Amino acid sequence: MLARTSERVIGRGLDGAAGRPVAGPLGRPVSRLLAWLGSGDRELRRSLGREIGRASSGGLVMRMLSVVVLWAVFLGAIGLGTPSAHADNRKFGYVYEVTTMPAGMWEYEQWVTWKTSKGNDSDFDRFDFRHEIEVGITDRLQLAVYLADWRYQDGGSVGNDRVEYKGTAFEVIYNLSDPVADPIGSALYGEVKIGDQVFELEGKILLQKDIGAWTFAYNLVLEAEWEGSDYEEDKGVIEQVFGASYQINPNWSVGGELLHEVEFDDWEHTGPSVVYLGPVVAYRAKTWWMTLTQLFQVTDIDSEADFQTRVLFGIDL
Question: Is the pTM of this model over 0.90?
Answer without folding.
Answer: no
